[in-house]
Protein 1
Amino acid sequence: MSEGMQVVDEKLDFDPDALREKYRAERDKRLRAEGNEQYQEVVGDFSNYIDDPYIDEVIEREPIVDEMDIIVVGGGFGGLITGARFRELGFDRVRIIEKGSNFGGTWYWNRYPGAACDTESYIYLPLCEELNFVPKEKYTHAPEILQHSQNIGEHYDLYRDACFQTEVTGMEWDSGDNRWTVRTNRDDEVRAKFVIMSNGPLNRPKLPGLPGINDYQGHTFHTSRWDYEYTGGGPEGGLENLADKRVGIIGTGATAVQCIPHLGRAAKELFVFQRTPSSVDVRANRPTDPNWAQGLEEGWQRNRMENFNTLTSGGIVEEDLVQDGWTEIIRNLISMANFRGKDTDWSKVPYLMEIADFKKMNQIRTRVDSIVKDPKTAEALKPWYRQFCKRPCFHDEYLPTFNRENVHLVDTEGKGVEAITEKGIVANGKEFAVDCIIFATGFEVGTEYTRRAGYDVTGKDGIKLSEKWADGIRTLHGFHTRGFPNLFVMSNSQAGFTTNFPHAMDEAARHMGYIIKKCADENITTIEPTQEAEDDWVDEIVSLSRLNENFQAECTPGYYNNEGQPNPKSVQNGAYGKGSNPYFKKMKEWRDEGNLPGLEIS
Ligand code: NDP
């Protein structure tokens, strides 16, 4: 151990080796041989779990057969930001195709009580300056985000050509006239020179693969399809119909953390079935100060986004503008390591990161003890893993909910729920009879891209995307894939990942906009990555992911590490390993070269 590390150790009031051991033991309890196969896909008998409960009116229309410049699949933030940036570049014929009844994506579907953004709204809500808008709260609630999504649609006139309640069923490339034909469940056949796939990273709800789900005789739904008709109330709470109900909720991730306080207040009795506790840090939400909002100067949102992203990527900035739980761990690290720019000894950084993480998680565990009165419940609510093994949560009412007499934590010690019966839920060998089961069990990650998208793509010479990517995603820069000209993929895979996902989407939208504009200006008919450029990019992704290999392997299972089974395919499907800022910089340098290197042009 180097001298610097001993200096750090002298000041520690905990034993890092003991913590490492405890983390491993807790992880081992949760490892399952089935890995990602443990979940039930929402198809067939389970497809009712993804029906749209928010439709006011079913849209009746004739099939559309026409041609656009650009088709964007998905009307969430990705589709909206892309549509907006394309409009700014002068593209008129842009059609967004969306399964929901309106724009909003994640925020269209996730209307559960208490839903709110966990990333500061001033950096999370896209295009605030363009719309001259400042959100009402530091962490604004879902209805305002949904409204803002729709305002973006209005502002950029994206409603004009949009198709809602419409699902893409397939698309194919026609080499004869160099166009894509996109087909839908409404029998549409829309042609376009360019297609953007912005299906969303967490768009397919998943269920635990438990025996008996369909035997259950009570009421049930997934959090992303909240049934307000059954519960009463709305996104702000209420839920008055639950006053005489025994409710069971399975899962304690970021979604559950936000809705459990509302369920606890409303239900006659609430049973929370926990497999792994979330880390729940301080939220400290507050209304926006109108004076601050008025004083914001041009460029404020971009500056703030970049400031946050630099800090959360481990970079150094003079001032932390956002100052929240996400940036705190990095602030700790900086003060601990006494970074001095060039003088920093980078070899010590992984160790210092781990120590800063232990400190942060100790604080989080102490917070549980300070809030939850029953010592056994408090103990069960403590997370034993590194903070970024799972999605960190921030909430001030979640932990106090477990002090309510009507709320019962059913901790399964990492084993999870065992079965569903006609009457309720079996856990720890015991049946809990409930009137309603709510699945807060998250979304598919790590399954085939085309399965999550809900359609396959047929490229040149009949090649299918599902076949090409069967052993792992292959792209150039995360956007292009050989054999599929003029097709852009918008996702985290092989691209830059940041906690503030809309930031990455905006970078992607600008990048795609640059390429498509260049094609228009220079009469380029098709672009497609060369084999060499694609292979090199995949190799770079795989070799960089090794930087992260040990961290992922030591983590408790979850969707960040392929349920505890990181493998060559999951590694290949991961994000650019040096982080989002170096990725954005690389893309900018690529654009600055001006001649689309690595793309074959016709
Ligand atoms: P998650 O995948 O994070 O959580 C699913 C939960 O279900 C976990 O607690 C999991 O336990 C549990 N679970 C799965 N199977 C079983 C079982 N058999 N028995 C008991 N428990 C089980 O889904 P969420 O919907 O909570 O969140 C998904 C993502 O959405 C977040 O990670 C975040 O990125 C995003 N999100 C963002 C929000 C925001 O910004 N405001 C709010 C909410 C979500 P285990 O941990 O052991 O696997």
Note: DSSP finds 21 helices and 21 strands in the chain.
Protein 2
Amino acid sequence: MTFIIIKLHLNNLIMEEGKQLESFEAKIAAGHKIEPKDWMPEAYRKQLIRMMSQHAHSEIVGMLPEGNWITRAPSLRRKAILLAKVQDEAGHGLYLYSAVETLGVDRTELLHQLHTGKAKYSSIFNYPTLTWADIGAIGWLVDGAAIMNQTALARGSYGPYSRAMVRICKEESFHNRQGYEIMMTLAKGTSEQKQMAQDALNRWWWPSIMMLGPSDDQSPNSDQLMRWKVKMESNDAIRERFIDRTIPQAEFIGLTIPDKDMKFDEKTGHYSHGKINWDEFFDVIKGNGPCNAKRLKDRNDADKNGRWVRDAAIAYAEKQLKEKQAS
Ligand code: FAQ
């Protein structure tokens, strides 16, 4: 008897979950947003936590290679702009950690995963910033690629993530323009300055097109994410759009894309590119890039050195609360 009751109960639960999944998928198909308190499949929640936390980590690790040039910016104007940009990236990290927390995970746990090397962050931030032109190349290429991806993510199905993307994209557009303006100024400068810009483009081009994720045939998460409209386009589709947009910009300032096989295909209306070194990409995301160890150390140091500020802020907030409750 007990067995039959349990079986009936389980059947009911399965049917209930089937209905919930159906209505969840119908909502997504109709272009409605999923909000934190809505029912969602566990796999959707897990995928969002994975992707959004990697994104949040990328924003704050991305502050490090640029922060490297704040004290050496070539003028007060450049320094003020770079400071603002790096602060914006910290802000993006904060919006994103807040957005991930709506899925029932605490940022302390996510940061612990980052600091212990368990969590991924964007491959691109494991390359060094060797000259001032690298700051131009990051704004132009890295923010350019990030926007290409994120404007699509802003149409995605999870409300808190898609809304965070709207503001982030506006700020990334400013970052992108300041980077291009640095490159344009250098490209119009002395022959040494132009060479410095070309050298930065040579080093950042391939990592920038790789940061949009592995080719579609090597991307295990894309199908599910696209079915649930978390990702609106595949990695290769976004890469193609980024390349199509960036080549004319390089030509306009007289720089050369370091890909001898790159050519415009009249039939498709797109540029075709040379072979991407996916071995390098997978090696970097495994932790073997030129700066992985340094980025992790710097992030851990920043966390440790900033602890007293967080402790003081929490103590102050607790004191205010107690005073309010007592009055
Ligand atoms: N780096 O199945 P897929 C920025 C991993 S923000 C490291 O294709 P998915 C702003 C992937 O996690 C830049 N790992 O994965 C800024 C997965 O591993 P897992 C960050 C990568 O999720 C500018 C495995 O490979 N933007 O730049 C990378 O469908 C300047 C298989 O890959 C975002 O995070 C990579 N590049 O597609 C800040 C946007 N690519 O987790 C400062 C949101 C892939 O299964 C200064 N994220 N992997 O172990 C996304 O759109 C997606 O997650 C992709 C990857 C497109 C990055």
Note: The chain has two domains: 1-32, 35-326.
Protein 3
Amino acid sequence: MMLHIPQVLTKDQVARLRAVIDAADWIDGNATSGSQSRMAKANLQLPEASQAARDAGAAILDALEKSPLFVAAGLPLKVFPPLFNRYGPGQTFGDHVDNSIRVASDGMRIRSDLSATLFLTEPEDYDGGELVVDDTYGVHEVKLPAGDLILYPASSLHRVEPITRGARISSFFWIQSLVRQDAQRALLFDMDVAIQRLAGQVGANDPSLVALTGTYHNLLRMWAEV
Ligand code: NI
């Protein structure tokens, strides 16, 4: 399942975050690549353990916790400390699948079930740079307003198209979900959305809604790995 989560950060939050990371020193993006993807990748990244990356990353983690859509769709168990990349003219990241296990600089180890890109540049400020994701339902091109996030299965083949004008600055990270299988997570999310919608119509204490909510939790109990 791919999901667009609008306005994870407000424009003000984006501006503040950009001020922190734009002033920092960037390094060759291959610092975080597996050996296979190293060949396909040309970009810059903030050093993972730098103060700028930590401060900006903490602000993003805080915003994610406050996003009901992110929590409902991702069912996050662990979120990798957010990383930051910058693609300038001619830079790109060719087709690849993200590594299955990621280890953060603080030793945190996660299984990457979901990949996330949080856009930090307005689409009109650069040409190219679309995130192209290949999943079972076809090829999707993604280019979102600054502050918006795309969630997609980390198992899918994806790339970043070459930049032809300007620069594309984003945050990216991975999520280990309580529910490992994408299909199970997607079903729970659909059910959650329907429950929330029904609650608005019939009230939270409606017996049928209470039963449906119970079923949601029993499915989650069956599938969750904590
Ligand atoms: Ni990737």
Note: DSSP finds six helices and 17 strands in the chain.
Protein 4
Amino acid sequence: MGIVSGKTALVTGAGAGIGRATARKFSTEGAKVVVSDIDSTGGIETVRLIHADGGKAIFIQADCSKPEDVKALIEGVVEEYESLDCVCNNAGIEGKIAPFAEQTIENYDAVMNVNARGMFLCLRAEIREMLTSGGGAIVNLASIAGLIGFPGIAPYTASKHAVNGLTKNAALEYGKDGIRVNSICPGGIDTRMLDSLAEQTSDGQQSSQQMMAPLHPLGRIGTPEEVAELIVWLCSDRAAFVTGANIPIDGGYVAQ
Ligand code: NAD
């Protein structure tokens, strides 16, 4: 028996990276999974991987920053699987690296639109649904940039601090309704996003491993599978007394 056996799990941004690893982990721990992403190619591939492992999953395309997409997504989950028990709000973008004084309004708006506004829209729709069905558990992807500042990525840092704030409010307001809401704050994780940040920082001279590993006390970056472990555990009944937390999973980064 898996730790989320019989539950329905929704993962946004599940067409790649941490989202894909999380969707697969939900499945191996017994959940029926709704894979959602703005990118249908990646999302459909995640579903294929879950089916190949013998799991149950469907793909629903959605841009998490569009209210109409988010509404249709939650309706689609309930139509297919009848309930929404577990959610990982994972979709996010990194934006462009620049010193604060050179950041553009366009980059600020683009990053906040997906990472903060999209998070608000998804959380609100998920809570509305969970209120009708007796509760559930939600994990939001923040970042260590939601706990501390990072030169060069001010919009991303602002958006991830917003994720941690939204998480606390949702947890406080709906704990008594049986809804737990937590966020996790990963350090450098081996995905396309980290490669993009390393590429922008070093003009392609250094890999994300070379740049980021020495900055972490464990001496390496993390894997999407390590992050998925924490997310699925937080959504399971084993984490029944955990809510409103912003939990680092960062190889010791923010302890420095
Ligand atoms: P990734 O770029 O590999 O995957 C992100 C996925 O989100 C992609 O499949 C993309 O298509 C999807 N997406 C982007 N915009 C979307 C939108 N508007 N609607 C729906 N889907 C959308 O990135 P990742 O590294 O797997 O990141 C996942 C989450 O983890 C993000 O929120 C990111 O900020 C966070 N995070 C990543 C790291 C890291 O080092 N990789 C560290 C801390 C936090």
Note: The chain has a mean pLDDT of 97.
